[in-house]
């Protein structure tokens, strides 16, 4: 199996994951592909400590390994690559921060060029070969709002969805309404979620929720700054 991580710069937040995958797969079967050189300030802080390894290369979204890989994790919104991989029958995980950051926020949705991009992305998202890993619950709220809106849930023009989530890397995300149906929230937790927009619950309670096919494609992404042993346990589960 070949796996690649596509990102903009080398990051110490991602290297624990990269190094564990190299141990599991071998250097010939893994690539950490970054597209931009590091700023000198970050180099001085030690952000380039894998740049001499054969599996860590500066390249572009057109790197041939990104089509050879069976699995790609991409932190870049590389729609051309996503579409090509879907046609080729390859699995892709897209990882991102929130799309509707303040101060512009959801107003981005009304830009014609942004809306065209969003519609194109929504088609990609519908593929069973494509998955989304948000970097935090705010990114999850933005994406779920977007997808639900494009699927005709017009109330999300005005509000973001209330979510229940497991804060662990790979954690499940669910709509509050589905969590309420499953009876996994107390009245106090329901009020807290409606007030703040989200609350976290342990995995054993979230597992009782009958999640939609849409939300099964979304899992919380962690930077994997925990010890290698922590991530090793995740790989073995």
Descriptive account of the structure:
- The chain has 237 residues and is of the alpha/beta class.
- It has one domain: 3-Layer(aba) Sandwich (Rossmann fold), CATH 3.40.50.
- The chain contains 11 helices and 9 strands.
- The strands form 2 sheets. It has a 6-stranded parallel β-sheet with strand order 3-2-1-4-5-6, with helices on both faces. Strands 8-7-9 form a 3-stranded mixed β-sheet.
- Strand 2, helix 2 and strand 3 form a beta-alpha-beta unit.
- The radius of gyration is 19 Å and the shape is globular.
- The chain starts with a strand and ends with a helix.
- About 4% of the residues have low confidence.
Give the C-alpha Rg: 19 Å
Percent helix: 25-40%
- How many helices? The count is 11
Q: Report the end-to-end length measured between terminal Cα atoms.
A: 18 Å
Largest sheet: 6 strands, parallel
- The fold-level CATH name is Rossmann fold
The count of domains is: 1
Mean pLDDT, nearest integer? Answer: 89
Question: Do you know the CATH architecture?
Answer: 3-Layer(aba) Sandwich
- SSE series: EHEHEHEHEHEHEEHHEHHH
Regions with little confidence, pLDDT below 50 for 5+ residues: 224-232
Strand content: 15-25%
Question: What's the CATH C level?
Answer: Alpha Beta
Short structural summary:
The protein is α/β, with parallel strands linked by helices and 237 residues long. Helix content is 38%, strand content 16%.
Helix-strand blueprint:
Elements: E1 3-7, H1 15-25, E2 30-34, H2 40-44, E3 56-58, H3 65-68, E4 71-74, H4 79-87, E5 91-96, H5 112-125, E6 130-134, H6 137-150, E7 163-165, E8 173-175, H7 176-182, H8 187-196, E9 198-200, H9 203-206, H10 213-216, H11 228-236
Parallel strand pairs: 1-2, 1-4, 2-3, 4-5, 5-6, 7-9
Antiparallel strand pairs: 7-8
């Amino acid at each position: 199996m070949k796996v690649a991580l596509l990102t903009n710069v080398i990051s110490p937040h991602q290297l624990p994951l990269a190094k564990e995958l190299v141990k599991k797969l071998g250097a010939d079967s893994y690539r950490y592909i970054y597209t931009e050189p590091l700023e000198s300030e970050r180099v001085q802080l030690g952000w380039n400590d894998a740049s001499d390894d054969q599996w860590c290369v500066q390249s572009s979204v057109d790197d041939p390994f990104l089509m050879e890989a069976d699995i790609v994790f991409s932190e870049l919104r590389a729609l051309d690559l996503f579409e090509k991989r879907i046609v080729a029958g390859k699995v892709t995980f897209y990882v991102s921060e929130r799309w509707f950051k303040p101060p512009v926020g959801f107003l981005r949705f009304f830009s014609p060029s942004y809306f065209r991009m969003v519609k194109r992305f929504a088609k990609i998202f519908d593929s069973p070969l494509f998955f989304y890993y948000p970097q935090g619950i705010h990114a999850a709220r933005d994406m779920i709002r977007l997808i639900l809106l494009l699927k005709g849930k017009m109330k999300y023009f005005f509000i973001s969805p209330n979510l229940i989530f497991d804060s662990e890397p790979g954690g499940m995300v669910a709509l509050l309404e589905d969590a309420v149906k499953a009876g996994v929230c107390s009245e106090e937790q329901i009020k807290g979620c409606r007030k703040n927009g989200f609350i976290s619950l342990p995995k054993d309670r979230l597992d009782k929720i009958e999640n939609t096919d849409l939300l099964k494609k979304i899992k919380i992404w962690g930077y994997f700054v925990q010890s290698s042993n922590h991530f090793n346990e995740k790989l073995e589960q």
